Amino acid sequence: MELFIQNLSKTYPNGVQALKNVSLHIPTGMYGLLGPNGAGKSTLMRTLATLQDADDGAATLGEIDVLKDKDAVRRVLGYLPQEFGVYPRMSALDMLDHFATLKGIPSNQRKEVVHSLLQRVNLWDHRKKAVSSYSGGMRQRFGIAQALIGDPKLIIVDEPTAGLDPGERNRFYNLLSEIGENVIVILSTHIVDDVRELCSNMAIINGGEVKYAGVPDAALGELSGKIWEKVITKAEIDTYEKNFKVISSKLVAGKPIIHIFSEQNPGEGFRPADPGLEDVFFSKINA
């Protein structure tokens, strides 16, 4: 199954144009949707999850018209929003059973489905604890469990690793990569590492527009031999930004290291740098 998005647009009543003719082809597997906060990612995710309408455009999932046949989409959709509410004293076991009921799982199958999912996301030993008492990583794994109810063909996860510590993030990566082998998983994030670790295809979105869509390695290849770095002082940042195409700067041991884009050797003490996905990201959103 594949997801095709054609010229999707959305403008909010306050005049903010969140999506501007967005077109994407999303195949089975992990697909990264990368962009800064406010880029339009969540608007696109909510539209695909049938939570809001687009103004123009089309989207099809296999034979399903995503924008017109919302019930059909919901039958094959798993959705993990950036934040989701829980009943404060309900255990993971009872809450997942409640979600399974809402999803239409027959009563004679729910117990097996719920137990299987809790084991799959490694929460079986914590099944009787209230979800509200879970750590961030455990809560996100519970979110994935509820998203997997009903064997969805499309799974949307919105900013899933924000706030997770490195260990929790790695466990979440492993879980998502396993899920993404057989279904479409759209990973919406502003964290470059999420896409680098997980996704074989990606898009970069900023200002409601698609700035890049394709394979991460191809994007890296476009920058080969064109990224240069230099250690400078904080006082020099403004000067370099005026004289060079600075695509990013970061502190290393308290000193700024800038990356610039240049077709030719810029001289002035710059040395060639191997391009990374962060360079791709910043070069596209700052273009």
TrEMBL record:
Ranges of residues in domain ABC transporter: 3-232
Similarity annotation: Belongs to the ABC transporter superfamily.
The protein's name: Phosphonate-transporting ATPase
UniProt KW keywords: ATP-binding, Nucleotide-binding, Transport
InterPro entries noted in UniProt: AAA+_ATPase, ABC_transporter-like_ATP-bd, ABC_transporter-like_CS, P-loop_NTPase
Pfam family, one: ABC_tran
Gene3D superfamilies reported for this sequence: P-loop containing nucleotide triphosphate hydrolases
Domain of life: Bacteria
